[in-house]
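Supplementary Note 3. Input sequence used for the single-chain structure prediction.
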Amino acid sequence: MALLHADSGRCIGSGQCVMTDDTVFDQDEGDGTVVLLTDRVDGVQLERARHAVMLCPSGALSLEE
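The predicted structure, written as discrete structure tokens, is reproduced below.
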């Protein structure tokens, strides 16, 4: 199990994370910044979270494994 972190102040709202896994990530309706639906991921969610961290253009996502 890994702990997922999201810095909404750094997020630019590109939505890459949501497109990677909408069971883990969402976007704030007001400004489009990242919202975590869960901060603990494993299995398939962990693999997708790793991919989302890699894709994030602003570096707002990180994993603590």
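The radius of gyration is 10 Å. Strands lie at 2-6, 25-27, 34-36, 40-41, 61-64.
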